Amino acid sequence: MADKTSGRTPLMAGNWKMNLNHQEAVVLVQKLAWTLADKRHDYSAVEVAIFPPYTDIRSVQTLIDADRIPIKYGAQNVSTRENGAYTGEVSASMLAKLGCSYVIVGHSERREHYGETDEWVALKAKIALKHGMTPIVCVGEGLAQRREGNHLGFCTDQVDRSLGGLTATEVAGIVIAYEPVWAIGTGETATPQDAEEVCAGIRQQIETSYGGPAADSVRILYGGSVKPNNVAALMTEPDIDGALVGGASLHVDDFAAICRYYDLPVL
Ligand code: PEP
Questions:
Q1: pLDDT digit string (tens) for 98-153?
Q2: What is the pLDDT of residue 3?
Q3: In a mutational test of the pocket of ligand 1, which residue from 11, 12, 15 has the highest number of ligand atoms less than 8 Å from its CB?
Q4: pLDDT of res. 5
Q5: CA atoms of 129 and 103, how far apart (whole Å)
Q6: Any catalytic annotation for residue 112?
Q7: What is the CA radius of gyration of the chain?
Q8: What's the distance, CA 206 to chain centroid?
Q9: Which pLDDT tens digit goes with each residue over 36-95?
Q10: Torsion angle, alpha carbons of 120, 124, 127, 132, to 10
Q11: Computed from CA positions of residues 69, 72, 75, 78, in that sequence, does the dihedral angle turn out positive or negative?
Q12: 244 C-alpha vs ligand 1 centroid, how far in Å?
């Protein structure tokens, strides 16, 4: 059994990034569902969500609805605009119509390659909430800030700005992902203690800005080269409520093992 005592339901979120077409997506979801069903996975104890590319979402929705699979799904991005002449954008209402529960906003790859600012991230979080979806707001320092020892201040500043305009009630229901940029896709993982330092600092910042109830219920994930061999130790930390998983979420056995981290040894 998952042994978290915080009262917050752990969330294991698989970010597929720009991988897998809609046919491959269906195969992966089926295999994941079968693997977890074999182990009688209790989805109310550890929530599982996947984030396919936009073009896969309709196929994933159709499969999940038809087979009543308790895996949730969401998008990797969303437009700040409601609708209109914004070529290439996908709106929150379109994603909500496709049954998305979550939207990742402010992933470091979007900040780095597409110039997304904290202000844009806040608009995206707000519009996702408006349309009934939960934003997963990503923050995380680069190597330079970590080397300067400024990682905590950098991340809490990012949190402050990226949640700008949200109410305390809204913040209580969102998910924040702490993803040190130097650990994403590199095989480098923050130690559980390093990850906990920042996740606890973010929770403290939420308490200061939005109050105790919001801090107690907001879920904070760690992301950055999470694998079956490091997830159990990360999950022993009190302020880490789950993981945002990139590479390993494309491998069914690895991602299923991560979802069942409590069966794994703490290494
Ligand atoms: C991510 O994409 O959010 C991520 C953490 O990737 P990886 O697990 O591959 O480092």
A1: 999 999 999 999 999 999 999 999 999 999 999 999 999 999 999 999 999 999 99
A2: 60
A3: 15
A4: 83
A5: 9
A6: no
A7: 17
A8: 18
A9: 999 999 999 999 999 999 999 999 999 999 999 999 999 999 999 999 999 999 999 999
A10: -160
A11: positive
A12: 7
Q: What is the per-residue pLDDT across 25-46, written as a single tens digit (0 to 9) for each?
A: 999 999 999 999 999 999 999 9
The pLDDT of residue 2 is above 70: no
Is 146 in contact with 180 (CB distance < 8 Å)? yes
Active site residue 188: no
What is the reported pTM? 0.97
The residue type at 177: A
Write out the chain in H/E/C secondary structure: CCCCCCCCCCEEEEECCCCCCHHHHHHHHHHHHHHHHHCCCCCCCCEEEEECCHHHHHHHHHHHHHCCCCCEEEECCCCCCCCCCCCCCCCHHHHHHCCCCEEEECCHHHHHHHCCCHHHHHHHHHHHHHCCCEEEEEECCCHHHHHHCCHHHHHHHHHHHHCCCCCHHHHHHCEEEECCHHHCCCCCCCCHHHHHHHHHHHHHHHHHHHCHHHHHHCEEEEECCCCCCCHHHHHCCCCCCEEEECHHHHCHHHHHHHHCHHHCCCC
**Of 230, 233, 265, nearest in space to 245 by CA:** 230
Question: Which residue CA neighbors atom 1 of ligand 1 most closely?
Answer: 246
Mean pLDDT, range 206-232, rounded to an integer? 98
Residue type, 132: G
Pocket test for ligand 1, best of 51, 184, 231, 240 (most atoms within 8 A of CB): 184
Distance 140 CA to ligand 1 centre (A): 12
